Amino acid sequence: MKSGILLKLILIRGAISIINAEVSLDRYRIFHAVAQAGSLSQAAEKLFVSQSAISQSIKKLEQQMEASLMIRTPRGIRLTPEGAVLFSYLDQALQIIDAGERHVVDLQRLNRGEIRIGASDTLCRHYLLPALDSFHKEHPHIHLHVTNRTSQETVTLLENGQIDFGIVNLPVASDRITIFEGPQLQDCFVVGEKYRDLANRVVSLEELAQFPILLLERGSVTRDRIDAFFLANGVALIPEIELGSIDLLIEFARIGLGISAVIGNFVQDDLAGGHLFEVRTNPALPTRPIGLIVSKDMPMSYAATALMERLRETRLDSSPISSSS
């Protein structure tokens, strides 16, 4: 890979050393076409211009370069030594330019490219992964790189230019990012069979706090929101168990270790299948949007923009939570 890039740089440098900056690229392309065809008339047909326009362009190029580049013969056009040198560099340089133009078109059409995404484990599994599945099937030649980090760490990755966009739990703060709101999430409390009776009535926050509570570890945005919600309602919530992921909270609740605070959108199947039961509270936990964050300093690629727009349009199933009063 590095040797290929180095070769391109050498070719471009060589071309630049020959090409006069005051000469338009069109004249070089015309000269190249004539040299390839060996005929003014054939080059004119290929470029859809008149033969006189071809002759005039070649004449101006020779004047600007102060060198004779072509000689007309009964059999067509023959390059002078100077013309042959120029052609050899132009041939390589124009191939590189054409390849670059094709590459850009491929990027625009999502035929190739790369996307670097940062997201937490839970948002990656339940929100990003389904979108990646369909996106990759439609655009198999786009390389995908996903980095799992907390929301705050994802912000840092974006600020450092290590990802194209991030998926985070809000709120996050940085003057170097732009935040777009995605689908709404509904936090809720769930239990397994052991505490199923709690699911048959509305429970106050004070009563809920008397049971074994399972929460995410301190420092996560989701945990901070739940702590702030309880404190705002005059209740100090002290968890029995603190875990590093929502998925573990779901499993711990399922086997009866306590009441877990989870994201209702992501436990729909467990609730519908009777593996978990929702504990309704008064007041209910508020909804919150998923955050899609991009850098203010760096433009996104066509591929990254397309995937992020798909994520913004994604709708998640709502939790069957009913606010109670």
Automatic annotation (TrEMBL):
Gene3D superfamilies for this protein: 3.40.190.290, Winged helix-like DNA-binding domain superfamily/Winged helix DNA-binding domain
All copies of domain HTH lysR-type, residue ranges: 29-80
Transmembrane segments: none
Keywords: DNA-binding, Transcription, Transcription regulation
The keyword ATP-binding appears for this protein: no
Family matches, as Pfam families: HTH_1, LysR_substrate
InterPro entries: LysR_HTH_N, LysR_subst-bd, WH-like_DNA-bd_sf, WH_DNA-bd_sf
Superkingdom per UniProt: Bacteria
One Gene Ontology term of the molecular function aspect: DNA-binding transcription factor activity
Keyword Endoplasmic reticulum: no
Family named by the database record: Belongs to the LysR transcriptional regulatory family.
Protein name per its UniProtKB record: LysR family transcriptional regulator
